[in-house]
Amino acid sequence: MIRDFTYTSLPQRVVFGAGSLQHLGREIDALHARRALVLCTPGQRDKAERVAAMLGAQSAGIFDGAVMHVPIETAREARKLAREQGADCAIAIGGGSTVGLGKAIALDSGLPILAIPTTYAGSEMTPFYGLTEAGLKTTGKDARVLPRTVIYDPDLSRGLPVALSVTSGINAIAHAAEGLYAQDANPVMDLMAEQGIAAMTRAIPAIRRDAQDMQARTDALYGTWLCGSVLGCVGIALHHKLCHTLGGSFNLPHSEVHTVVLPHAIAFNAGVAPKAMEVIARALGTPSAAAGLYALAKDNGAAVALRDIGMREQDLDRAADLAVSNPYWNPRPIGPAQRDLIRDLLQRAWAGAPPVEG
């Protein structure tokens, strides 16, 4: 039986396929843009220079200062450069840090964003943004930050290190998994979530076996699109709240913290979202959603403990306090009354223990 639901589609164009970067000029013209500022991290400078060369006279320069969690100071610097160069468009090439910087520019100026993802974070498919100021990460939702166009070219992810491919892929899975029990979940997103998780589950071990496997890279980007689309159309819950807290306030690496936390967040919600657990487990090909996610990370060489990615045990109390002080909606309450439960979850995640449902 199909339940009542409301579904809102997002106004976005996706160009998908190996070699699709060749269509960049066409897509810039479709946006009616004349000067595009290219955004990247320092490590992606070579890709940004390639894009700027393709643009020729349409390039307004390169800003290569994108970093994790979008510090407000970085956002202000990029916004200033965009104004000075007369940019009427921004091109974000890279992962979630670069796309997030593009969103910060769009939030301030309304400039259209064209995203060229080289990782599997999926934020290019969402109208969500995040900014970090004074050690606190704030998030929001605004239609202006949704990239107008996304070019998915698997060739550009060929050089993504295997370790980051694994954690970035599990980060994408997190978007789809939480979408299955979101407050505004719907059957259209349920289909995309299951297919997205399944595509990533195929891709991750294949990439670990052979980083140049283009079918696996294509599966991973396809999964990214589907999982990111789920995140863009429905809400987020406990998992993302914990990751935003740990990443923004303790500067933990983005995809790695998602990878560690996800099995524990799913286990926390297992008893109140049985249908979602069935879908996740089916897509993973395992009996248990939480245990399957933990195994996917561990079996493919990813860290499964917060202590192994820079979290100090003495900071767990503060992390629990922050997480419950301004909670997101979750199918199982996660407010101040549940502080000790969240603290226990974080302790297991810190130690790298298997997830425990209940």
Automatic annotation (TrEMBL):
<keyword id="KW-0520">NAD</keyword>
<dbReference type="InterPro" id="IPR001670">
    <property type="entry name" value="ADH_Fe/GldA"/>
</dbReference>
<feature type="domain" description="Alcohol dehydrogenase iron-type/glycerol dehydrogenase GldA">
    <location>
        <begin position="11"/>
        <end position="154"/>
    </location>
</feature>
<protein>
    <submittedName>
        <fullName>Maleylacetate reductase</fullName>
        <ecNumber>1.3.1.32</ecNumber>
    </submittedName>
</protein>
<dbReference type="InterPro" id="IPR056798">
    <property type="entry name" value="ADH_Fe_C"/>
</dbReference>
<keyword id="KW-0560">Oxidoreductase</keyword>
<dbReference type="InterPro" id="IPR039697">
    <property type="entry name" value="Alcohol_dehydrogenase_Fe"/>
</dbReference>
<comment type="similarity">
    <text>Belongs to the iron-containing alcohol dehydrogenase family.</text>
</comment>
<dbReference type="Pfam" id="PF00465">
    <property type="entry name" value="Fe-ADH"/>
</dbReference>
<feature type="domain" description="Fe-containing alcohol dehydrogenase-like C-terminal">
    <location>
        <begin position="166"/>
        <end position="349"/>
    </location>
</feature>
<dbReference type="GO" id="GO:0018506">
    <property type="term" value="F:maleylacetate reductase activity"/>
</dbReference>
<dbReference type="InterPro" id="IPR034786">
    <property type="entry name" value="MAR"/>
</dbReference>
<dbReference type="Pfam" id="PF25137">
    <property type="entry name" value="ADH_Fe_C"/>
</dbReference>
